[in-house]
Amino acid sequence: LSLRPHVFTLSTKYLDSHCSRCAGSPASGLKRCTGCRKVWYCTSACQNNDWPIHKFECTAIQNWSNEAPSEKVSVPSDAVRCLARILWQIKRKSPSNIWAKEIQAMQSNRQSIHPTAVEGHTHLAQSLVRYLGASSPTELESYGIMSTADLVDFIINTVALTTPSLTPIGVAVSPLVALINHSCAPNVVVVFPRSRKDSGNEPVVKVAALRNIAPGEEILMSYVDTTLPKSLRQMALMETYNFQCRCWACTESSEVDPREAVWCPTACGGTSSLPTETENRVSRCNSCGAAINDPDAVMDATRVGQEALDKAGSLQGMLNSNEAKLLTTNIISVLMSARLTPSTHPLLALLKLHQTLLISSFQTLLTQEVLNETIRTAGKYSAGLSAVLDEGHPVRAMALVELGKLLAVDEPSPAASQSKNGTFPPSGPARLRAAYETLLRARADLLIGFGRQTEGGEVGADVRETLVALEKELGVWSTGIRNVLEDTLPPARIARVE
Description:
Blueprint: E1 2-3, E2 7-10, E3 31-32, E4 40-41, H1 44-67, H2 78-93, H3 98-104, H4 118-132, H5 150-156, E5 158-162, E6 168-173, H6 175-178, E7 181-182, E8 188-191, E9 205-209, E10 220-221, H7 230-241, H8 248-251, E11 261-263, E12 271-273, H9 295-317, H10 321-337, H11 347-360, H12 368-388, H13 394-407, H14 429-449, H15 457-488, H16 491-497
């Protein structure tokens, strides 16, 4: 299933780097609207196509900006702008139009709103009234809104607008996608893969099947991050949607959940459930039956790990990357010493954050040691995801892409001799071979998660080009070795070496 969403808006921080009509991000050439000076377009065609709605938005942004107390709040939130675009479109087409009826037919969730969210929705409604230039909520009737409660239906039914590499850049509304219910073990994913072949209708939202879906089987997506343990997933669902998930991933507990697992203390290769304070039962290995030696120490390490994750994320947000990187380095070592598996929270999230921090340091100074540490971290993160997510899941695919590209980075100080068997990452040609094989796996996942029709989308096309380049580089290396052998060894020896 592929279609253009009815409405989308970019988050404020991405307004000057992405086109507000197609959500594309060209390397250069974005043109700013000369009216509001806040919205940008990649081409005149995109600007002209967006004008029927932006002409209302342009005036609204200017009025909002003139009244804003500072530049930081000179543009309303993406939620306010998205709601306004819906209402302008309804008014422009009339409430009886098919487009408007599809929007209005979206499932109502106002009765299930968590009490703590009421204040936020009220503030949102007030901001929308101000943005539209109305004096009171009653003036929204001309847009087909009889009460501010109607706005809740639009808010709850949004999906995250993302780049092809899954970075959230805004929100989108698609009535058809909004029909899909939640499961922590979904059989579909919602992505925006983008295609180089047909970019005229972008952004296109794609609902991709992760596995074969039987006739009559319900199509299910996840509303939350499924790499989180059950308690955090349930908390997120309750806070945002006010319901408790009862899918099999949340109700069946016969096996060890890889999101909450520790390695066997005897190193037999098995795992046991992460001990918790709420359960009195002894955690035992699912393979040999050995009990965790010091469950309190494991629980303490997990608690400290969550605190460190929160703090490191805050430090990163304050642009204090060096302190955040030092914190993630230390706490990852603590959690691995406590024998948490890479798929276990909060270790999995810390590995991803640490990888991001390391990559950001490349611009300052890229050393062999930093590159190798980044590759090892990316490898652990990818392995952790593979234990949690289905084959073809876009998040898993992107982790493999990142790992493969890191392996393909030119080594600042390659090892003088070939790496020993089992050493990761390898060096020299063996590293290129590992990059090639990793990207092949990534491409296979991309074809599932982003769709075969688009050949894995924009990321899939990029990976294919990288694979072709690696094939050439590996071929040059093989030819060079053969030439050296021909120059130094007798023909019989060459045959044996080959």
